[in-house]
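Quarterly update from the structural biology core.
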Amino acid sequence: EVRTVEYKVLGDNYVAVPTHLYKIVLVTDIKLKQPLLGTFIVPNIPIADKHLGTFKVSLEELERHVGVVFHPELDRKTVGDLCVDSGCNLEDYRQFMQFFWSRRLKTPWNIQNLEKDWAELVTRGDKSE
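Predicted structure, tokenized:
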């Protein structure tokens, strides 16, 4: 049986554009009773109106698609579901930008970067704290 895959390419060098992206989130913390895992396959298109849980797949399914075994040391019988614990909620763009700028202003690399970032926020009129 012969199978083919079609995909878009960009530029003079024909760089392949993936149709989908995957993400594996493994959370381990001594405060948790067990590690938490979330695995997702997301189409390479804007998904702002979709719940992240829509794209949730099992780790085994993702491994079959990708052809790689992830976290082989992980005892998969003891892993909790990240989406059950956290809800796997996506932030909207405004929430993300508030988080981004708050983090950037709280942890600047140096005073020059802080001043530059502050000036950009003032110019944009952003009211984020």
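The radius of gyration is 20 Å.
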